[in-house]
Automatic annotation (TrEMBL):
Top-level EC class: transferase
Name this protein carries in UniProt: Xanthine phosphoribosyltransferase
Pathway: Purine metabolism; XMP biosynthesis via salvage pathway; XMP from xanthine: step 1/1
GO cellular component terms given for this protein: cytoplasm
Binding site for 5-phospho-alpha-D-ribose 1-diphosphate: 127-131
Reaction catalyzed: XMP + diphosphate = xanthine + 5-phospho-alpha-D-ribose 1-diphosphate
Length: 189
């Protein structure tokens, strides 16, 4: 997706340790027009898939998931990083956050994910595949069918795609970063 790649090169910032900061347009301040283009592209890529729900993990995956849900008239479910006191009957798994360098116990109500669901997971980044593993586990626990996973940005050098493909799940990324060596953003075209 050329618009996204151009925006990453223009406004993305690289930090040591393989960190790409895109908070100017994706995960702190949002560009709604770009988010709509992202949602439309995911919809195009998964047009032949029968999905009845979109799933993500809070917080940065919520914006593209909501935009897709709006355009497809589908519900959006997000796994929470803290269990609300009002939640019972939940699915739970542990996810390690590369960005925050800590583990989260993510939870999701059994009420919103079950065996009749065919879901598409959408998130901002694919790095090591930790969030993906967590969602795969939650879908397995619920008996839901995980149709595919879509990521706005994939850091290919961190090999998260391998985790997803080894699980037999389709993976689509809109922009793929080949390298952030020497804090230089190198995109795959």
């Amino acid at each position: 997706m050329k618009t996204l790649r151009d925006r990453i090169l223009k406004d993305g910032k690289c930090f040591p340790g393989g960190i790409l900061k895109v908070d100017k347009f994706i995960n702190h301040q949002l560009d709604p027009n770009l988010m709509k283009q992202i949602a439309v592209e995911f919809i195009r890529r998964y047009a032949s898939s029968e999905i009845n729900k979109i799933i993500t993990v809070e917080a940065s995956g919520i914006a593209p998931a909501i935009m897709m849900g709006f355009l497809l008239d589908l519900p959006v479910v997000f796994a929470k990083k803290k269990q609300p006191s009002t939640m019972s009957g939940m699915l739970s798994t542990t996810v390690f956050s590369f960005t925050k360098q800590r583990e989260y116990h993510i939870v999701l109500s059994e009420e919103y994910l079950g065996p009749k669901d065919k879901v598409l997971f959408v998130d901002d980044f694919l790095a090591y595949g930790n969030a993906a593993k967590g969602i795969i586990d939650l879908c397995r626990q619920a008996g839901a069918e995980l149709v595919g996973m879509g990521f706005i940005i994939e850091k290919a050098f961190q090999h998260g795609r391998e985790v997803i493909e080894q699980a037999g799940i389709r993976c689509e990324s809109l922009a793929i970063i080949e390298s952030l060596d020497n804090c230089e953003i190198k995109l795959k075209y």
